[in-house]
Amino acid sequence: MEISKSKKTKAQRQEISQAWIFLAPAIIVVSIFFVLAVLFAVYLSFNDVNLFTNTYTFKGIDNYLRIFQDKKALIAMKNTATFAFIVVPLQTIFALVIAYILSNKGIKGKKLFRMIYFLPTLTSSSALTIIFMFIFNIYGPVNDFFMSLGLYSEPINFLQEPAYALKVIMVMNIWSTVPYYMTIYLASLVDLPETLYEAAAIDGATAVDKLRYITIPYLRPITTYVLLTGIIGTFQMFDQAYIFSNGSGGPNNSTLTISLMIYQYAFGQMNTMGYAAALAIVLAVIIFVASRFAEKLNSER
Question: Residue limits of the ABC transmembrane type-1 domain (predicted)?
Answer without folding.
Answer: 77-294
